[in-house]
């Protein structure tokens, strides 16, 4: 995984609450057996009409936001299906940071596995970031994971919480499986004692 | 020893290693796999030259893409769907995991097959690359959905890196009224807490109304814990659970059964256990419900009316406006006046034998008044049992299509889809925009309510037909 560097980029406002993973990547695109190439279909049903033409009103179709790398989103972003195709599509489009008041649990975890940072902030701060994002392409935000800060184009800075282990993995670009396999002997030991305690499993 | 919840007990029994910051390596007893969220994970193993650590604890079955028409033996027409199912065929064989191919009578929706075959047992940890893994919580198993990266992690290590969630108790007291089912309970809970109400929690459902439910009903309740945002839903195992599990192909037998039973009987929340959040709903206050919008929290009793956006606060005002427009409804309209084109009975929420019995009970001797109606049993074995009980005949006589097992129109990855603007009374779990087909409109209901809608052609209070 690539290391998560500081992000300085355009933030796109998506104030709708409960944006679900069916919206982020509709099921017709789940038939792939690859991880790559889903960015073009990100938010497909909101972004294109039935003929495949862009819907001009949709935020990521607007000239100011086509290069967005940050999303400022409404409550409960990423709810619904566990499909990791959702973060794959976001990452493939170029999104590196998503800010909301809350995220669905599985989506939240999936982001970290793909080098993306979901940031939870209180409503008032999300509202300020949303307003800033609405200014368009000139409003570039800065995200510093090491310092755990996000700054608006006016320089207003908020700090955010992040799980220390997840932060470390993002900063170093670490592969979870490699880390866990290094603990193989602990897993062996657990399996031996579990086989004694619950042999029917 | 300090008092523990059921979740605490299962969690503690599965911690392989705990770091100072509370990050745990959690052991996984059962890993269920389907064709949509696993190809990239198996590919990852191949690229890294890794094996599946515990193939004997890994169970695969294709369900999302499979056609449900009677001629499916001739193969899958859609090339991408076919490739995905073929990839699972190959991966299951190459990595030596348990497998129920499309041609196997035991094939079906992964969350129906697992319990049916006795893979799911109380006190286990169960994961699957599918959010409705919450279903297995009905057995008192800690069960939740994971993404594909985590699928690969479990395949390679039989563990997950996890932090513990908080404990939430949802108590449904007393008895349910006639015509009210497990589906109405679970939708009503989401209606009360919202789709983010459970975020950060594992829910334990308890109370007399939950105890009174069959295993089928309990699976329906836990299935939709994810729609309430919870990591998992749990119900403490009891005699109903043990009765269901006993004798299933992969359930323990003989002395092992006795040993298992002894442990399972310790799996309940201690009286003075700590709860971070408690919700109590009176069973008698729950009515047969329907959803009017495009979020599972948009729940109202069938006797209600379509709300107005101004009835809501904050971001929900705009969301409700968008939902009402998408659904083609008018604020103030009676829910029981909403005309239905299609009825879908099936899914991991309501595709079990008891669901089919409840629907057939309403349909007996009647004809459908909708354009189309289909029953998609949750597994080949549910289908066979329904045929044996004469339910299939009732459905067919009423005008329902009687299909083969799969996820079908719940997420419409196979050809079973709604057309643009088509309105469906569905026993599935999600009413999201486009979920059952591009611009399709979904009203979530119980199987009995779906059957009632099929007969009248409108959303209907099933109590009027009992």
3D architecture notes:
The complex is a heterodimer of chains A (about 200) and B (about 475). The longest helix of chain A is centred in the last third of the chain and has 14 residues. The radius of gyration of chain A is 19 Å and the shape is globular. Chain A has a seven-stranded mixed β-sheet with strand order 4-3-2-1-5-6-7. The model of chain A has no long low-confidence stretch (mean pLDDT about 95). The two termini of chain A are about 35 Å apart. Chain A is α/β, with parallel strands linked by helices and about 200 residues long. Chain A is built from eight helices and seven strands. In chain B, strands 5-4-3-6-7 form a five-stranded parallel β-sheet, with helices on both faces. Chain B has a five-stranded parallel β-sheet with strand order 17-16-15-18-19. In chain B, α13 packs across α15. Helix content of chain B is about 30%, strand content about 15%. With about 475 residues, chain B is α/β, with parallel strands linked by helices. Chain B is globular. The longest helix of chain B is centred in the N-terminal third of the chain and has 17 residues. Chains A and B meet through α4, α7 and α8 of A and α2, α3, α5, α10 and α11 of B.
């Amino acid at each position: 995984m690539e290391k998560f560097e500081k992000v300085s980029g355009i933030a796109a406002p998506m104030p709708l609450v409960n944006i679900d993973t069916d919206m982020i990547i509709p099921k017709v695109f789940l038939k792939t057996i690859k991880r790559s190439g889903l960015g073009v279909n990100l938010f497909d049903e909101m972004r294109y009409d039935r003929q495949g033409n862009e819907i001009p009103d949709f935020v990521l179709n607007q000239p100011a936001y086509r290069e967005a790398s940050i999303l400022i989103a409404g409550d409960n972003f990423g709810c619904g299906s566990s499909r990791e195709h959702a973060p794959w599509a976001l990452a493939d489009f170029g999104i590196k940071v998503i800010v909301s008041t809350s995220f669905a649990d599985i989506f939240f975890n999936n982001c970290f596995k793909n080098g993306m940072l979901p940031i939870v902030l209180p409503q008032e701060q999300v509202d300020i970031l949303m307003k800033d994002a609405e200014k368009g392409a000139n409003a570039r935000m800065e995200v510093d994971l090491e310092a755990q800060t996000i700054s608006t184009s006016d320089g207003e800075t908020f700090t955010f919480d992040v799980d220390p282990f997840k932060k470390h993995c993002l900063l170093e670009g670490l592969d979870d499986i490699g880390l866990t396999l290094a603990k193989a002997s602990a897993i062996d030991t657990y399996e031996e004692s579990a086989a004694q305690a619950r042999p029917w499993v | 020893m300090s008092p523990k919840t059921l979740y605490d007990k299962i969690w503690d029994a599965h911690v392989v290693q705990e770091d100072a910051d509370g990050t745990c390596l959690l052991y996984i007893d059962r890993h269920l796999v389907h064709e949509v969220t696993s190809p990239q994970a198996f590919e990852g193993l191949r690229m890294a030259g890794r094996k599946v650590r515990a193939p004997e604890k890994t169970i695969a079955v294709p369900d999302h893409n499979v056609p449900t028409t009677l001629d499916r033996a001739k193969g899958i027409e859609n090339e991408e769907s076919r490739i995905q199912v073929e990839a699972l065929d190959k991966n299951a064989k190459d990595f030596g995991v348990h497998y129920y191919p499309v041609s196997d009578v035991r094939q079906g929706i992964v969350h129906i097959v697992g319990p049916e075959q006795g893979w799911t047992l109380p006190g286990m940890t169960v994961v699957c690359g599918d959010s409705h893994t919450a279903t297995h919580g009905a057995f008192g198993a800690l069960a939740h959905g994971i993404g594909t990266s985590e699928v690969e992690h479990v395949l390679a290590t039989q563990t997950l890196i996890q932090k513990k969630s908080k404990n939430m108790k949802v108590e449904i007291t007393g008895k349910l009224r006639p015509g009210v089912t497990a589906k109405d309970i679970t939708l009503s809970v989401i209606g009360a807490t919202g789709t983010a109400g459970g975020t950060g929690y594992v829910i334990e459902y308890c109370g007399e109304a939950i105890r009174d439910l069959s295993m089928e009903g309990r699976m329906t309740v836990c299935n939709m814990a994810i729609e309430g945002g919870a990591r998992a839903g749990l119900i403490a195992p009891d005699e109903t659970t043990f009765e269901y599990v006993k004798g299933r192909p992969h359930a323990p037998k003989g002395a092992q059964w006795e040993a298992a039973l002894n442990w399972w009987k310790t799996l309940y929340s201690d009286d003075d256990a700590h709860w971070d959040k408690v919700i109590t709903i009176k069973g008698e206050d729950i009515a047969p419900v329907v959803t009017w919008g495009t979020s599972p929290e948009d729940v109202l009793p069938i006797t209600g009316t379509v709300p107005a956006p101004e009835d809501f606060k904050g971001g929900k005002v705009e969301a409700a406006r968008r939902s009402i427009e998408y659904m083609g409804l008018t604020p103030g309209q009676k829910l029981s006046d909403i005309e239905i084109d299609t009825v879908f009975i099936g899914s991991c929420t309501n595709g079990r034998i008891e669901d089919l019995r409840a629907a057939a009970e309403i349909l007996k001797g009647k004809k459908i008044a909708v354009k189309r109606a289909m029953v998609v049993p949750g597994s080949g074995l549910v289908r066979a049992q329904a045929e044996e009980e004469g339910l299939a005949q009732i459905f067919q006589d009423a005008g329902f299509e009687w299909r083969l097992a799969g996820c079908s129109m719940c997420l419409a990855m196979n050809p079973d889809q709604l057309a643009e603007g088509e309105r469906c009374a569905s026993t599935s779990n999600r009413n999201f925009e486009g979920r059952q087909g591009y611009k399709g409109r979904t009203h979530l209901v119980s199987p009995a309510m779906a059957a009632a809608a099929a007969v009248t052609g409108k959303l209907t209070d099933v109590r009027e037909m009992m």
